[in-house]
Amino acid sequence: MTDTAQLLRILDIMKALRDPETGCPWDIEQTFASIAPYTIEEAYEVADAIETGDMTTLKDELGDLLLQVVFHAQMADEAGHFNFFDVAATISDKMERRHPHVFGDIEVASADAVKSNWEDIKARERAEKSANQEAGLLDDVPAALPGLSRAVKLQRRAARVGFDWNAAEPIFAKLDEEIEELRREMRAQNADKTRLEDELGDILFVIANLARHLGVDPEAAIRSTNAKFTARFKWMEKNADLDTLSLAEMEQKWEQAKSQSR
Questions:
Q1: DSSP E strands: which ranges in 5-90?
Q2: What are φ and ψ of residue 144, in 5° steps?
Q3: Which member of 1, 49, 53, 86 has the greatest number of CB atoms within 10 A?
Q4: Dihedral sign, CA of 80, 140, 175, 116?
Q5: pTM of whole model > 0.85?
Q6: Burial class (CB in 10 A: 0-12, 13-18, 19+), 148
Q7: CA distance 228 to 223
Q8: 10 Å Cβ neighbour count for 206?
Q9: Angle at 148 between CA 223 and CA 63, to 5 degrees
């Protein structure tokens, strides 16, 4: 079967699944909103497969993610908005437009120059979309992004007009300041949960900014730490009956787990 035939095959499969009379009841009742969480979940599973370096799993997870695109496109086609091929045409147009150094006559000297040019083109696109109203620099940063990822995007946009630290070091002072504000809120009588959430959010926002200045993806960093914690905790479970240990004894086991993972 040719590559084109394989693509048409998955499109036909989704069309059949959504057929009102002969399709799958679960697929038929889905909406953009009900499918969106699965789309996000599949993107994370792709990222996880990349981190593990398992190419067989990556192929499988990319297929799951492609299915999400096909699903959304089929529902849009049914509603008369657009179809899968419109999606492909739109991203193709966008990629050519945003790579004038490849598909046009613009010359760039480095990857940094490419990135800068990319951001300039995106800024012009935002301005064109908002031709009848004043376009804000942060307007199109998706609200549905994971919190730390969105924080980095917001900060990166603000940095384009100079609202940013010049280096990572001064951010530590800001982090200390935000931590102290959280401590004050914790010490307050009848500490308000909303205020605690607000102060903790400020700390996380500063940490995201620090990660950005260090060139570290905070989402990748926390995923790595989650994986490390999971592996060490599993070692503890395997090598001790945790229900019988005190916290001090569990901390000793934790140190042993850390030494095993080094």
A1: none
A2: -85, 0
A3: 49
A4: positive
A5: no
A6: buried
A7: 9
A8: 21
A9: 55
